[in-house]
Prior knowledge:
Rossmann fold; Alpha-Beta Plaits; four-stranded antiparallel sheet; ABC transporter ATP-binding protein; ATP-binding; ABC_transporter-like_CS; nucleotide-binding
Amino acid sequence: MESVIKVTQLSKVFSEITAVSDLSFTVQKGDVYGFLGQNGAGKSTTIRMLLTLITPTSGSIEIFGYDLYKHRKEILRNTGAVIERPDLYKYLTAYETLQLFAKMSGVKLSKANFMDQLELVGLAQRANSKVRTFSQGMKQRLGIAVALVHDPQLIMLDEPTNGLDPQGIADMRNLILMLREKMNKTILVSSHLLSEVEQIANRMLIIDKGKKLVEGTVAELFHPDDTVVYIETNDQVRCEQLLKQSNYADKLMGVDIGGIELKLRKEDVPVLTKLLVENNISVLGITARHSLEDYFLKITTANQHVEPFKN
């Protein structure tokens, strides 16, 4: 498969602080690539190096198969980006904003082209509204319209859902999926909102303290047996006794007043439910918890070092 971004042993040191350390990863054409990590993990520093806003201390970056620093102009002409909160001119309208950035990019577009861009991000009805009247979510979407004004094949989004309410987050998620599925864009999206990235990314990288922990597809990172299922029934005591005498005995993780936890495959949930019903145990609720956030917390917690308390 064709790679769009290839990062090899990338490092960035600021004075005595190592922000990124020996980082390597590959983004394939057509990916929505989740770049994940807690705040301060090195995500923004890496993206800034990919955009030549920061010079690496060491390592190499290839984009579209070319060395970034030898072919900077050609690469950036085909790259769009939104770095954290977009820096827009508050007293321009949405339409005027696109006109300005198109001119700065050397792109000539018609009024219909600009309106199509605004329609794409759901802002066509606000084309003549001043940016200062926009919500944060609207500014984020306008920022993406600006990033798309020169029709790039690669888009980098740094924490695009920062400061958004639940509806704004959902709108951003749908917009990213549309850019990939309908416009065939390759998208690198960094975030610390892991449950959100899990819903849009087909491949992902998790970093911590500037270092790569894991990279791969969801299927590669998560083993199906790691699903945690929480069951609520009308008779917890009898349910526990039944499970201890069944093939699920070694799957039991814990029991409390509210329910029973097991670790098993999602495919086994219907079979387990049938077993309980056949034994006259009513199932009041089943919750399957198998998320990127669980996995992320597991591997990053293992990477933490807690300093002892000193009085």
